[in-house]
Amino acid sequence: MKEQACRKCHRIVSKVDSCPVCKGSSFSAEWKGYVVVRDPERSQIARALKIKQEGSYALRVR
Ligand SMILES: [Zn+2]
Question: Which domain holds residue 16?
Fold first, then answer.
């Protein structure tokens, strides 16, 4: 099964009940764009997506 992305914060997750970042429980397999954030404070993408924790995120989640 394809990994899923959190609808709230776009974190990529696999088989979890709640998102490790925002504790949300709504996930979608319909996402596009894979971005790995290592340094959220210095990453422009992280700022644009309001990412505060390092990890893998989807650019777009449906
Ligand atoms: Zn989340």
Answer: 4-61
Number of separate domains in the chain: 1
In order, the DSSP letters of the chain are ---EEETTT-BEESS-SS-TTT----EES-EEEEEEES-TTT-HHHHHHT--S-EEEEEEE-
Condensed to tens digits (0 to 9), the pLDDT of residues 44-60 reads 989 998 999 999 999 99
Report how far ligand 1's centroid is from the alpha carbon of 52 (Å).
Answer: 11
44 CA to middle of ligand 1, Å? Answer: 19
We report the CATH number of the domain holding residue 34 as 2.20.28.90
For 3-59, write each residue's pLDDT tens digit: 999 999 999 999 889 999 999 999 999 999 999 999 999 999 899 989 999 999 999
pTM of the model as a whole:
0.88
